[in-house]
Amino acid sequence: MLSPRTRAPARRPAAQPGELLALVLKTLDDGKAEDVVTIELAGKTTIADQMVIASGRSTRQVLALAEHLEEALSRRMWIAVEGKPQ
């Protein structure tokens, strides 16, 4: 039996197709994001099925949107965020 320190981290359940996109769009909608566009990438690249682009009315709103997305997605999977200060 493994001790608590050597136990592997619990795996998060894999997201169903479209589930992450729905979560991203709902989070952006809740944060009042503007000009939300989804670009289908399936079959064009191996790194993503969709790309979502959105804008906000101010730097503060865009930062809040990024933080809310980070929080919502990190509950489902491991994510890395870059460029938030800019």
Considering the chains and any ligands shown, give keywords for the structure.
single chain, 33% helix, two-stranded antiparallel sheet, 86 residues, globular, alpha+beta, 2 helices
Question: Your description of this structure?
Answer:
There is one protein chain. With 86 residues, the protein is of the alpha+beta class. The protein is 33% helix and 15% strand. The protein has two helices and two strands; from the N terminus they run H-E-E-H. A two-stranded antiparallel sheet has the order 1-2. Helix 1 (19-30) runs antiparallel to helix 2 (59-74). The N and C termini lie far apart (47 Å). The model has no long low-confidence stretch (mean pLDDT 85).
In brief:
With 86 residues, this protein is of the alpha+beta class. It has two helices and two strands.
Topology:
Elements: H1 19-30, E1 34-40, E2 50-55, H2 59-74
Number of strands: 2
Average predicted confidence as pLDDT: 85
> Using only CA atoms, what is the Rg?
16 Å
Query: For the terminal residues, how far apart are their CA atoms?
Result: 47 Å
What is the percentage of strand-forming residues?
15-25%
Structural class: alpha+beta
Discrete helix count: 2
The description of the largest β-sheet is: 2 strands, antiparallel
Low-confidence stretches: none
| SSE topology string | HEEH
Helix content: 25-40%
Shape call: globular
* Main sheet strand line-up: 1-2
